[in-house]
Amino acid sequence: MLKIGIIVLIIVLVVVLAALIVLSIYGRKLQKRSEEGQAQMRAGAQAVSILVIDKKRMKLTEADLPKIVVEQTPKYLRRSKVPIVKAKIGPKIMNLMCDEKIFDLIPIKKEIKAVMNGIYIMDVKGLRSGLEVKPEKKKLLARLKSKLNKSQNS
């Protein structure tokens, strides 16, 4: 009975180890592909002056983006919410997609200089005034600790 348990344990460990090796190899390939895509996007990027009208997170199908963008997006991602920026570029008003990292930095109703590739905003810089960086929200535990420290100091 003891030998059967050890054999089952060894088999389970071998299967888990094989799964981890396969996942790490697959993860490296995905990371390399992502880095290549980012490099291509950076190569075709250009700085443009835009006036931001509005920004919000919307479903890709409701964002009024060109049909080709929606068609090229995998079906399982079409209903996910993406950061959309409505901006005036020259005389045209367009809906643009935005990088999730910089979405909070984009000011509303201000003119900014954006680094763009097609309809995708990759980076922003303040044009007339500096960009306001919102302070990061503290996590629950950090807020409770700061409240405790304030009450103990008082």
Care to describe what's here?
The protein is α+β, with helices and mostly antiparallel strands. It has two domains: 1-43; 45-126, OB fold (Dihydrolipoamide Acetyltransferase, E2P) (Beta Barrel). The protein has helices at residues 2-43, 67-72, 140-153, and strands at 46-59, 81-89, 92-98, 111-117, 120-126. A five-stranded mixed beta barrel has the order 1-2-3-5-4.
Q: From N to C, what is the helix and strand string?
A: HEHEEEEH
- Binned strand content: 25-35%
Query: Architecture of the largest domain, CATH level 2?
Result: Beta Barrel
User: Overall 3D geometry?
Assistant: extended
CATH topology of the largest domain: OB fold (Dihydrolipoamide Acetyltransferase, E2P)
The count of DSSP E runs of length 2 or more, i.e. the number of strands, is: 5
Structural class: alpha+beta
> So what's the CATH class of the largest domain?
Mainly Beta
Q: How many domains?
A: 2
Figure out the total of helices. 3
Q: How large, in whole angstroms, is the Cα Rg?
A: 24 Å
Largest sheet descriptor = 5 strands, mixed, barrel
Keywords: Membrane, Transmembrane, Transmembrane helix
List keywords for this structure.
transmembrane, extended, membrane, alpha+beta, 2 domains, 154 residues, transmembrane helix, 5-stranded mixed beta barrel, OB fold (Dihydrolipoamide Acetyltransferase, E2P)
Quick description:
The chain has 154 residues and is of the alpha+beta class. Helix content is 40%, strand content 29%.
